[in-house]
Every structure is written in C-alpha cells, then in structure tokens.
Write a structure and sequence with these properties.
This protein is mainly alpha-helical. The protein has a domain at about 50-145: Transcription Factor, Ets-1 (DNA polymerase, domain 1), CATH 1.10.150. It contains 7 helices and no strands. It has helices spanning about 1-5, 50-65, 65-75, 85-100, 115-120, 120-125, 135-145. Keywords: DNA-binding.
Amino acid sequence: QPAFDTFDSSNSLFAGYFFSLNEDQTLQEVPTGFDSTSYESNNCELPLLTPCSKAVMSQALKDTFSGFTKEQCRLGIPNNPWLWTEQQVCQWLSWATNEFSLANVNFHQFLMSGQDLCNLGKERFLELAPDYVGDILWEHLEQMIKGS
C-alpha cells in the first residue's frame, strides 16, 4: 500500500497526455454526414447520383451484365435484342432472374418478341415488372440495344 501512496502523477511517464477534468476544453464537432438528412421524413430517399457515381454504377452493371454473353453463346441468342424470338426473351428473363435473384417477375407479361419488347419504351416496360426489378431489366436491355 505505501508504494501507491508515494506515486507522484506529475513525474509519471504519461504526465501531460491526459487532460484534467477541470481544464477548459474546446471540442471540435465531427460532421456525421446526416446533418442535411431530415429525421422526421418517413420516406427513405437515396442520395442523388452524380455523373461520377453514375459512371461507376454503369460500369459495374456492364461488368455484371457481361455474364449474359456466355448464355447468349450457349443458347444461340442474337446480340441484338430486336431480333429475339419469344423464347429468347424468356431465356433472357430467366437468366436475369437467376443472376440477380429477382423476385416476382411475371414471365407471362413478357411473352413477346424482341422487337415488341424493344418497342415498349421504358415507361411501359417498367409497368410490366415490379419496382427495381424493372429498372435492372431495363438497364440491361438498354445496354444491349446500344451495343448492337
């Protein structure tokens, strides 16, 4: 016990590294990133995409979609979606559903030729598929149309 009583904290190796509770301290507030977020809002809003983030997202999707190329070769599906048969449209939907673990895709809604599929336009196309699922499918279809 006496050894602890004679310990002088001012001569300690750590003296000066710890603040006294009595000293005036200025704290710097670290931004959380949530400062501009309304906590009272009931809707979950995604941050706006910037041109850079859109490019990154687009490249990631291209890389992911490239897996369909193997399936096209295996099944003899043309690169140009305008030339697809009803069966090839279904094969594409089946691949995408499995690849992206998409749920609630109604294949009967898409019983059409590639030409009819491409002629739908984005708005009508998205009406045929559940939210977000349609966006993924449309993005892939659009990239294939542009690439053909």
